[in-house]
Amino acid sequence: MEASKSQGLFKTANGASLEEINSSVKVPKDASFWKKLFAFSGPGALVAVGYMDPGNWVTSIVGGAKYGYLLVSVILLSSLIAMLLQYMAAKLGIVTQLDLAQATRSHVNKPVGIILWILTELAIMATDIAEVIGGAIAMNLLFNIPLVIGVSLTVLDVLLLLLLTKLGFRKIEAIVVTLIAVILLVFAYEVFLAKPDLGATATNLIPHTKIITDGGALTLALGIIGATVMPHNLYLHSSISQTRKINHDDPAEIKEAVRFSAWDSNIQLTGAFIINVLLLLVGAAMFFGHGDGLDTFRALYNALQDNKLAGAIASPILSMLFAIALLASGQNSTITGTLTGQVIMEGFIHLKMPLWARRLITRLLSIIPVLIATIMYGGKEGALDNLLINSQVFLSIALPFSMIPLVWFTSSKKIMGEYVNSKWITALGWLAVLILTGLDLYGLPGLISGWFN
């Protein structure tokens, strides 16, 4: 019961996180392991989409095109760190019944809370920029829809999300899982046709010194790791882990919820790891040795139907499947980005407004800079792709402000009671913070330089 007592430390927060869906999913009491796992499965999928969003696509494929299978170990390391931090985020929400924004706000004064909200909102905008751009470019490639119109159409995602929320949170989870399956099947098919070297793939699961000694490989490795764990995912998971209805007066139910949430998260993040590896394998098997210039979505789309680049398997069908997967990825991430915007707005500044207005404002904040860039540079090849890459500067700045409180809260006996992190989990958590923060700070000067160029 220590955790129940510790929850009193946080009760300055303003209501339940995502109140309209909090504790909305019933969990069977006396059921088999698999039935309970199914009941708890879903939040992990919404989190996993952040690890396979359009912002990671170019980096993974270009990594394969330029360095073959060398960077597979970097994707593995990123995924393991993600599993650790997302486990902490889910546990924080389940045990304290508060999301990371609410917990952080309860430990700072109002001015600091506002500053943190603005910083986190900018990080969400930076993340959402990738999803908006990915969706708009996919619509342009598939249906020849002008980029300005495609960017504007992404507002409709909010209406879709509102509809799904009315039908129940499980509907949101179902559509996200379906879109993830589309992405997985598309790239599994393309990798099957490409016939990558599976032996080299397995060998490169162990890091090679070339990743450090080769400047280009190191830069791509920094991009893969530094942009993988995004601030918004930690806030989102700490909130949606509370969608399952459990008795918080029963320690056994809390422990069970934490355990099954960890299963859900790790399974879904394993899927994200597989998809990211598939992306790299597409680049390695099809374009290694002649992948220069494949640094935009359109260039990749064109390359998949170019016999000189993709070889005998090149075809318009492969390009179309790539664009469909890109559209699915953008749709997935816009849903989760909108939910996260609501979480931080309520958690940090306790802002109350109608549900549709909160979500619409969050979406518009992300669309405005993309629209401006599209109108100003829409005719320039790669302009939106450059905006996508340069937007990562906000993620680099905001990341420590979410990771550090998360590890600190979940490692505090006073806050978590009997559910506190073990010593080795705490040690790994702080090590992950040091690695990710260090890598982001290492790459920050280059990001800022590119942002202003």
Automatic annotation (TrEMBL):
It is found in: Cell membrane; Membrane. It comes from the Bacteria. InterPro entries: NRAMP_fam (IPR001046). Keywords: Cell membrane, Ion transport, Membrane, Symport, Transmembrane, Transmembrane helix, Transport. The chain crosses the membrane at residues 67-90, 111-137, 143-164, 176-195, 215-236, 269-289, 309-328, 360-379, 391-409, 430-452. It is a multi-pass membrane protein. H(+)-stimulated, divalent metal cation uptake system. Belongs to the NRAMP family. This is Divalent metal cation transporter MntH. The gene is mntH.
